[in-house]
Amino acid sequence: MSGKVALSIEGLKVRYGPIEALKGINIEVQEGSVVALLGANGAGKTTTLQTISGLVNAAEGKISFYGKDITNKEAESIASLGISQSPEGRQIFADLTVDENLKAGSFTLRDKKIIDNCYRRVYKHFPLLKERGKQLAGTLSGGELQMLAIARALMSNPKILLLDEPSLGLAPLIVQDIFKIIGEIKKEGTTVVIVEQNALQTLKIADYGYVLDLGKINISGEASALIKDERLIEAYLGTK
Fold first, then answer.
1. Rounded Cα–Cα distance for residues 240 and 75 (Å)
2. What CATH number is given to the structural domain containing 26?
3. pLDDT per position in the chain (240 positions), as tens?
4. Strand residues in the chain grouped as ranges (E)
5. Which of 19, 55, 143, 155 would disulfide-bridge 105, Cβ 3.0–4.6 Å?
6. From the CB of residue 135, how many other CB atoms can be counted at a distance below 10 Å?
7. What Rg value do the Cα atoms of the chain yield, rounded?
8. b/e per residue, 90-116, with b = 16+ CB within 10 A?
9. 199: closest CA among 174, 234, 158?
């Protein structure tokens, strides 16, 4: 890790009407690291990702990307800076082919050479998608859809990849594959912020973790320490 801060969140508050979904959270993401956001349903994890990527507006606080204030900027301009999100529920274009979905992921890029490199990278991690190029995305299995969702996010050549529940609803063997690929993406130099309920698997590949509870961060630290934290084990890992 370089020690350079890629993403910084300070005092972030988000409200949905009278409900305060985030209550002043602080998060720092080092360049080249994997940072895990853990917690139960409704803790504010997805809201955090959506606020970073400009899909939800902050009520208070500041989000900085390499020192540049991106708070409440348009989602498209945040994407063009180099932040890409693979959303929860694998929201791909079901009526488009696999190829067309991947092409849609590269909409912020203008340089054909970079786009070609993105295709090479995606096919290296997900060779199956090359085979399924002409297939309608809506006909893929759950695991294949998740691969496509991550691949499409990678097609924008992001500096930071935001992953929302990549293991949700997948068979254990496919989950292992997905996490292995996330580790490889990190090794290539892409910073990853991952929202997950699968705390144990996530902490094995993460460098640092934050545990959200009802819109607040109640535990944070190095992933290697969190994986042994009694409070976390009891609340999220389900074993002692």
1. 42
2. 3.40.50.300
3. 457 999 999 999 999 999 999 999 999 999 999 999 998 888 999 999 999 999 999 999 999 999 999 999 999 999 999 999 998 766 788 899 999 999 999 988 889 999 999 999 999 999 999 999 999 999 998 888 988 999 999 999 999 999 999 988 888 888 898 999 999 999 999 999 999 888 888 999 999 999 999 999 999 999 999 998 887 777 765 544
4. 5-16, 19-30, 34-38, 60-65, 68-69, 83-86, 160-164, 191-196, 208-213, 216-222
5. 155
6. 14
7. 17
8. bebeeeebbbebbeebbebbeeeeebe
9. 234
Residue given tokens 């990278």 in the structure block: 121
The reply to whether 208 falls in a domain is yes
In a domain, 71, yes or no: yes
Domain count, the chain: 1
Q: What is the pTM of this model?
A: 0.92
> Any idea which residue has 């199956």 for tokens?
128
Close Cβ partners of 67 (under 8 Å, ≥ 6 residues apart): 5
| CA–CA dist 225, 137 (Å, integer) | 40
Q: Is residue 198 part of a domain?
A: yes
Domain boundaries, position 29: 1-82+192-240
Residue 151 amino acid letter:
A
Residue 153, in any domain of the structure: no
Distance separating alpha carbons of residues 193 and 160, to the nearest angstrom: 7
Tell me the C-alpha to C-alpha distance, in Å, between residue 142 and each of 89, 97, 151, 206.
10, 16, 14, 24
- State the DSSP code for 96: S
